[in-house]
## 1
Amino acid sequence: MMKSALVVIDVQRDVVANAFLRDEVIVNISGLVDRARKEGVPIFWVQHSDDELVKGSEGWAYVDELRMGDGEPAVHKQFGDSFEGTNLDELLQESGVERLVVCGAQTDACIRSTIHGAFTRGYDVTLVSDAHTTEDMTEWGAPSPDVIIKHTNMYWSFQSAPGRTAKVVTTAEVAFSA
């Protein structure tokens, strides 16, 4: 059986402050975290920092609704792809993980970068369709958040590569033992 891990990306106060369907997405992520803990599935928490999101600041912290558990590693990143310049790949390999279940923010940046980064590194990647979000950047020419999320869910469901699978499932459909 393939060992899975839950990867929670950038659900930080300032990152999701104005996110589309913020509360619903956080409830879904919280449910995934609870299920992963009950099933003994490792959870990896990713936290972004940069000049605007200063490590250690109030806005950099994870939202109050989500709490990291003892022994659940926090991976600190400075790039969109959670693997770049971090020890995430090493931590996953040490844990024997072959499949990632991914949720968090921002859909059009760190989520996309990370699912592609994981896939090219040989992991099977399941994106949880109703557990990722982004903010509205239409004033800069981006599509609306709902369209970004739908498009990401659609195109990820058609990804393929030798010996790897890409899937999109709802929170209710996540099977960590798959």
## 2
Amino acid sequence: MKRNRNKNYALFARLCLVLLTCGMTLASCSDWDDHFDESAIKSDSQEIYNGDIVSYLKSTAELSQMSQMFQKNGIYDSTYTNKTYTFIVCDNNGMSAHADEISGEEAQANFALNSVSDMEVAPSMLKDGLGVQTRFGKCVWVYKRGNGFCFDENNVTKCVKTNNGYVYYVDGIVPIRLSVY
């Protein structure tokens, strides 16, 4: 019986040593604030924004043209913090480069609707051939290209996770496919 007690003490001592070593390792890690701020966390695959999707879009200078178009066409009015979304956006340079394709009020309204899905599509869900249904009533198709993905032939250049969805940056504009009806 004394032998079992000695084995238990030895096991307990080893366990304490392991826990102490793990605790010292964790304590030696640098402070969280040295790497991350309150609004965004960056990783290799995506950025994480601490806020809702509309706040992100409104506060990002490089998306000001798209944000104005979303505001003008009522997209923000029908986007709620308690629901999830996917926005496919291009920066101001991309918008300027394709200005002729989305000139006119109807084209801009259709483009705004075609850039938003009322469901959250995480990067882990992106599969070759996936169709993402947009508010315009059409699918934006996902294709695998090299090590990344594209939405309708536009490369995904950046992904931002917000509290209620994802914002995918693409290097062009998603085409508007009008219905024959």
## 3
Amino acid sequence: HINFTLDKTDTMTTRRSFLQTLSAPILAMPFVSASAEGKPFEGKVLRVALLGLGGYASRVAEAMKDSKRAVVAGLVSGTPFKLQSWRVKYNVPEANCYNYETVDQIKNNPDIDAVYIITPNALHKDMAIRIANAEKHVIVEKPMALNAKEAKEMVDACKKAGVHLLVGYRMHFEPK
């Protein structure tokens, strides 16, 4: 947490104090990461089920293989062949695999914390509400919904269920 104040009357001091405040933690980063290198992550690992096993889901799954803070713990697909091949590839227990008709049963699975919805946009709302009702955290790919009304329904369902709703957006600082 960085604390600094802006003084509109003295921009040089503001810039200087901002840079000094910001540079200390940045300069310390190599030492912090070097001391933690090689040690296993000791925090809670997020166990994620991927819902929709298309092209982007494969990119997410491959990236998660290298993550120490999240794992592919479940799979949801309407294609039995995909479920089987992905289950083997990502070492997911058969008990953690669902199809679109049985996905509501994920509620009873303590091995899954969140469901990442990576389906065509028109399916986001219904799936997000089903996952929230199953009391699992919801991660949905962008765009979140087809319109503001659907997005509000998703937000309301997650609030009512007491779960988090996250929109997967990786380009926060992209100029466009």
